[in-house]
Write a structure and sequence with these properties.
1 helix, mainly alpha, rod-shaped, single chain
Amino acid sequence: MHANIGKLHGRKQRTMEWVSSSVASIRSQQSDIERITRAFEELAQSVRERQAEHLLHLGNQSVQSSESARQESEQLGSNVDQAQLLTSHFLQMLCDKLLNKGAQASTRQFPEPAQ
């Protein structure tokens, strides 16, 4: 019986050592998991910050592009207005010349009756 008690005590001792070793291993793994989790959380935060910065940058570019497009549109509108004024002036001059030549031509072709 002493032998059985000795065997049981030896098995109990080995089991306790195995449990203790397993607990230490689990705690070590848990610590590793916590470090990995913190690293991922920091990475996620960094990504969110970079995304926010990138979105802010894109927003600023969009505002600048809109302002540039507005200025170009105004310039184009101004150019169109100038072209319309020049065209109107040219047509007025052309009409005046044609009407003056027509009046001179009609005067020569149809002289007024002598009095």
